[in-house]
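Intended use. Records like the one below are meant for learning the mapping from a protein sequence to its folded structure. Do not use them to infer anything beyond what is encoded.
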Amino acid sequence: MPRGHLDTRTMHCSALAGNPRGDPVDRPCAVYLPEAYVAGAARYPVVVLLHAFTGSVPGWFNTTPFVPGILDRLDALFAAGAPPFLAVFPDGLTGLGGSQWIDSPGNGAYGQMIVQDVLGHVDRNYATLRSPGARAVAGRSSGGYGSWQLVRHFPGVFGHLASHSADAYFEYCYLPEFPRAASSIAGAGGVDAWWEGFERRVRETKMAGDDHAVLNVLAMAAAYSPDPAQPLGVALPFDLDTARIDERVWATWLAEDPVRFVERDPEPFRSLHSVFIDCGTRDEFGLRWGARMLARMVAGGRATVVHEEYEDGHMGTAYRFDRSLAFLAPRLAREQG
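Structure written out for the chain above:
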């Protein structure tokens, strides 16, 4: 049993009202209160943890035999002497598997949801510190990507960022899956037909081998290139007949690549207090290279930047939060005694 307490409540997300996919506006938000937390006593800094693609709030707390879960890791962190903070677990799941934690006409305002609804909920219901120096955003994969986007679009909200295996340098992380996705969609007879077959497969059996590649392309297109006139409301970045890259659509994707937008305007990131970046050397999506690029871009400013690589792939690396949270915990601003 955890030493702390996990408080999960249903939260109304006004930022998602009228979202185009009809996804839930009322969502779970879990807040982990460390053992030291006493309501109404000292105020605590906050770390918002963003789940990966196809993740959810309940997914954070799935258990695997012999493997510590995120609550075990938080307990161990605080037991080792790290200054306590509140860990917040919001929900960014969409009907296509994920929002990338950004405001998009194709999904809804998931970035605004974090800064308006989630932080508002946490500040109203818990003893929190509200300065940027007392707030961090951290995530893995799509969650790590979302960390960059939140700092980009909402400067001054978070003073610290942790990015594990984030989607970055899109030529490496997305392009290799396009031929597989194009083949599956073409073989099904189009996007709508593929989606109908996908829903039937997962209902009756399970996902097929190339389903993830297609689902990933569709979800990213909903975030980066929405088009209500197209099937599922997305413009694909390639031609369905030839799989040739559609340069116009691809350009809208590249504009959302952290390597591009950090290079264009590094100041929001260099102005942070702390940045932690890592990726496995065997990451199957080639994300180590984007991580290296980002680490170089944010160096040289006010932020203390830590960049690490480790021997592993992309999946099953939640243990890396041990490193980022241990780095962030003592750097979060606290009440003066």
